[in-house]
Design goal:
The chain is α/β, with parallel strands linked by helices. It contains 22 helices and 14 strands. The termini are far apart.
Length: about 500
Amino acid sequence: MDVPQLVALLARSRYPLVQLLSWEELRAERLIERAAQQLGAPLWSWSLSDGLLGPPGPQPQTTAPEAALVRLLQHKEPGLFLLRDLHPHVGAPGVVRLLRDLARVAGGRRQLVVLLGPVPLQPTELAKDLVTIDLPLPDADEVQRLLSQLLKHQDRPLAPEQAARFVRGALGLTEEEIKRLFARVLLGGGRFGDEDLRTLIEEKRRIIRHSRYLELWEGGLGVGDVGGMDNLKRWLEQRAAGFTPAARAFGLPEPRGVFLLGVQGCGKSLMAKAVADLWRLPLLRLDVAAVFGGGAVVEGQSLRETIKIAESLAPAVLWIDEIEKGFARDSSGGEAFGTFLTWMQEKQKPVFVVSTANDVRHLPPELLRKGRFDEIFFVDLPGVHERLAVLEIHLRRRGRDPMAFDLVRVAEETERFSGAELEQLVVSALFAAYAEGSAMRTEHLLDCLRETIPLAVTMDDHLKALREWARPRARPASQDRRRADWFEAWEEITAP
């Protein structure tokens, strides 16, 4: 159901107060006008600058919110009342009381008061009378119409595949931002080619960055760039086609999300980036510190804005790094926590959530139950085979041939090293070789590893507790190679 239909339905159902949350004032006003047309009711509007405007014309001395609300109380005919940016005035004497008086009589008069603004009203006195609607950002159909209108005025045809790419690239922006971006391409002499698409994506990244909560990440890191975690990789590959219409027709639900718990520096964040590359989806990173940097009201609104942008980009991957920094302290039932739980349980748009955590023991249990995340994986320290793969990856990345080193020996001697520590081992060995003015050798790696004390050694108690928690509750991200190694060794011993 679109917004005009929903508003009209609420008015017919005698709801008195609706708050429409959006930064897009012009677009929201158009939708409310359509709702008034569907109802066949007059539309009144108010703002601090214009005062109260209605079918008879401007109402004198109604720029003050209290005066406007008193005038609306005196109006006994059906209608829609659109009040812009009332939230700064809720603390003024009498405003909440007048809104409650309106709520008492509006339903019987077939009136609906719509409070439009980007910030929600939070008075407890209005909690039972106020319905909140988040205006979604323009979807693909709306963006397509905007693009078609601009191209029509420019008399510039565009191939369907090019148009589809630009429509996808503009998702997640407001209507005005989309218009300005498309106009920038047209007025700059662009032909909607690859260069213009890069300009669009860069501008979009800049705009999304201004949200303070989300960051659009570039691709480029593949699953092959992450060593080990075969079980997790296999699980992700099985769900790679989960967002397609064919999967829906087969009866499969869209993948919801995965929770990655584990030791610091073992590749959880790398896998979050690799998921987006594997599935060819945009990757959004949620800045937990920014969301949870204010009070409860600010946090709830921040998370709603984040969800709105993520859903407008769907299908997409939303990466929440170190989720415990935000939700561990919110287990008492804060607004942001409740908003996130409800969205994870009931979300309709294909936004795949990848949450990572270094310590899950202080998170509320309702966050981790089935239905919110498809699976929980435990990412442990890499085994010897995984350490070998990680060393090979980082040597190749730095222009070295892994076959020139005794990596089996290095892998065996780096027990309890994390993936990040193995990377730094390669970097340290390169520095040592460069300082000597010689080519890098296995001895450089061995000398550097003997000087390193892994974090797992200094945090041994923490690691043991984490493994104990994960053993009955999470799937291992890596395949257990110990049994396979035993059988391989047995076959070699018993071979004729």
